[in-house]
Design goal:
12 helices; about 325 residues; alpha/beta; 8-stranded mixed β-sheet
């Protein structure tokens, strides 16, 4: 039997752009809106999983700050990719080096399943996520992944929290698929970038969705076959996501602009953008809080009346 839960929170994928989730959730926490269930895709599963495991959102923010200052991140291939994409290196010698490293990564991708090693992403996940089972989270949590063999969307609700999130975050091409129970699982964003529908399937009555993909209207110059291929994927994903978001009660979309998914160096800016987007939707959020409060009050009155008199008060009374 499906359990009814009041508020569901859907956290979308988007790589580094997912730090904007933290900003949105800071506002929700301030408004005393706590989700009864969280479903996340990719970076949304990392932020959502950390929060669901019992961390306060301030702790998640501090974790992000500490990670970006750590030797683990500073020496990582992920940072090197982010620097190249963001144009962080200003000197000519560094720009030339970044250019050739990009070409080398693309060449490597022809002979192995991913550009990045899975170990780096595993360390990233381990830094944020405790070594527990999904069933042990404080807030019920689900991670969304894609089965590369049969093309199905997979909602992970049992087993290792870390491994489930790793599978949900395995961006195709950038990271190899993750084997869970014989299934080759990759990023949930292939099919479902903002997992709204899965919250309703889990019994959520009200859904807040946070989409952190970059502005589809922004397009850099298309010079190569890879540029065109990536752009086609962005357009396809945008329209799939638009369809998914139609059923959400509140959709919060931070104005990410053209920030690249590997550009973790802009984490503070992204968190601020998330806060700004939530504040823009504050009246809707507050109306949702009042609606839930009234519903809880009515449910409490019904329970009290049934307990005392064996009757249920009518809505018109």
């Amino acid at each position: 039997m499906k359990k009814h839960r009041k508020i569901g929170l859907a956290l979308g994928g988007g790589g580094a752009r997912g730090f904007a989730h933290i900003g949105v959730m800071k506002v929700l926490e301030k408004e005393k809106i706590t989700p009864d269930i969280i479903v996340g895709t990719s970076i949304g599963s990392i932020v959502g999983g950390a929060f669901a495991s019992g961390m306060k959102i301030k702790e998640v923010e501090k974790k992000a700050e500490t990670f970006l200052e750590s030797d683990l991140y500073q020496s990582s291939e992920l940072k090197a990719m982010g620097d190249a994409e963001s144009g962080a290196e200003q000197r000519l010698s560094r720009r030339i080096q970044s250019y050739f490293m990009t070409k080398i990564r693309l060449a490597q991708a022809l002979y192995r399943p991913s550009i990045l090693q899975i170990d780096e992403m595993q360390e990233f996940v381990n830094f944020f996520i405790p070594d527990i089972q999904i069933e042990e989270t404080i807030i019920p949590f689900r991670a969304v992944a894609t089965d590369l063999r049969n093309g199905e969307c997979v909602v992970l609700k049992k087993g290792s929290l870390r491994r489930s999130i790793l599978a949900s975050s395995a961006v195709p091409g950038a990271l190899p698929p993750v084997d869970i129970n014989g299934r080759q699982l990759s990023d949930g964003g292939i099919i479902c970038n903002v997992p709204v529908q899965h919250l309703f399937e889990e019994g959520a009555q009200e859904v807040i969705a946070i989409a952190v993909d970059r502005d589809i209207a922004l397009c850099s110059e298309l010079q190569t076959a890879v540029d065109i291929y990536v752009r086609a994927g962005e357009i396809q994903g945008f329209h799939l996501e638009k369809y998914s978001l139609e059923n959400a009660d509140i959709v919060i979309r931070p104005q990410i602009g053209a920030i690249h998914w590997t550009d973790f160096s802009r984490s503070k800016e992204l968190i601020s953008l998330g806060e700004a987007a939530a504040m823009k939707n504050l009246s809707e959020i507050q109306r949702l809080a009042k609606r839930i409060y009234k519903r809880d009050l009515m449910d409490g009155l019904k329970r009290s009346a049934k307990k005392l008199f064996g009757v249920t008060p009518s809505r018109s009374g």
